Amino acid sequence: MRARGAQVTDIIILVVAADDGVMKQTVESIQHAKDAQVPIVLAINKCDKAEADPEKVKKELLAYDVVCEDYGGDIQAVHVSALTGDNMMALAEATIALAEMLELKADPTGPVEGTVIESFTDKGRGPVTTAIIQRGTLRKGSILVAGKSWAKVRLMFDENDKVINEACPSMPVGIIGWRDFPSAGDEILEVESEPRAREVVHWRKYEQEQEKNKEDLELIEEKRKEHQEAHRKAREKYGTLHWKARSFIKYKIKKQQQPLKPKEKAGGDSNVLPIIIKGDVDGSVEAILNIMDTYDASHECELELVHSGVGDISENDVNLAETFHGVIYGFNVNAGNVIQQSAAKKGVKIKLHKIIYRLIEDLQEELSSRLPCIVEEHTIGEASILATFSITEGKKKVPVAGCRVQKGQLEKQKKFKLIRNGHVIWKGSLISLKHHKDDISVIKTGMDCGLSLDEEKIEFKVGDDIVCYEEKEVLAKTSWDPGF
């Protein structure tokens, strides 16, 4: 989104907080400005705070080749406060002065050119785009094409939601009259007529379809080669066998590949998370989908995007989620009471968020909940073997270890392991735990005891360690790191 903004604008106002200084997003914005070769005006915000240090911000920016006028550079720095409004006019003047120096001009005549900044659905208005006009003058009734959508302009409004009749270059404008949603970042072009607009859109859709078909064919060809290779290897494997032996092996393989029962299927699908994404505007959905593209933990749980779109959550979304056993994530959208009741009745989760980071954290938690629990060992006590001997029980000789508890306590009902030279050579339970001649269930630190294991073949050696532990199931966490 920052990259798109840098490509569209002629002057970038870089806002840095005077108390926080240069952050990761500041560095990213500077890089986008350099890539787009767009000049910067520095606005140091929150200067009304007691802990504000504008000079520190200027020094930190030197490391990123952002040199302010105070340090011999050509970048204007204005100390402002968005809260109190201090120096906001000075920031506007600095921006105008830079624009005059650069002699920024645009042609208000000829066909309209512009860029879609955002698109969303407005109740009563339908698809709406906010755009920046870069050339020509946009008027009511103009025919526009953007991406794979076209519009006959029915209504225009400015940043204050006031209806306007025309929009000149550099003006931000809301446009109503789109037949479909253009994507944020799409180029807007004016065409002479509706038939021409339909022709352009049809051609663009056709080209996209052809490109997709080409990719599908490449994928099919790749799969065909894989199957051919597997078939060749299978023939080589069975080629020397008698037909009876070959038939028996094939029967065993077929038996292993029998379809799962419904209950087994339900259990097997737990490592797949189908999701539906709904956002308030196209840019928000794009940002979420871009984060999802970084998902690299399919070996743990497969993340499956069933549908994404702009607008409030609808009954169709709930039905789709029910069909795929998925979860609906909404960003800055609403789900009415009727929709929520329908979702609850159908067992569909609807998760609404106002902050993208929170939505992604919620998604990580949902992915983690699909993973099998991890069994962790928690040590309760440790003892060292000081002596070994055996006792006779009936006709059997039972090996016994004389131990001293060095740490924690030994509890007879828990699990134990025998460690020799750092290697675990046995895990299991005790059949007896004695202090002197008394059977006891707990031995504490510093006390001596005798114990015998549930496996008679294990031999004790002086210097071995006995560890008493318990196993606890801990919820697993997905290894996916979205990068923030």
TrEMBL record:
Gene Ontology CC, one term: mitochondrion
Molecular function via GO: GTP binding; GTPase activity; translation initiation factor activity
Keyword Cytoplasm in record: no
One Pfam family this sequence matches: GTP_EFTU
Primary site of residence: mitochondrion
Signal peptide: none
Domain Tr-type G: 1-105
InterPro entries: EF-G-like_DII, IF2_II, P-loop_NTPase, T_Tr_GTP-bd_dom, TF_IF2_bacterial-like, TIF_IF2, TIF_IF2_dom3, TIF_IF2_dom3_sf
Annotated localization: Mitochondrion
Keywords associated with the record: Coiled coil, GTP-binding, Initiation factor, Mitochondrion, Nucleotide-binding, Phosphoprotein, Protein biosynthesis, Transit peptide
Keyword field contains Signal: no
Coiled coil regions in record: 203-237
Functional summary from the UniProt entry: One of the essential components for the initiation of protein synthesis. Protects formylmethionyl-tRNA from spontaneous hydrolysis and promotes its binding to the 30S ribosomal subunits. Also involved in the hydrolysis of GTP during the formation of the 70S ribosomal complex.
Quaternary organization: Monomer.
Name this polypeptide is given: Translation initiation factor IF-2, mitochondrial
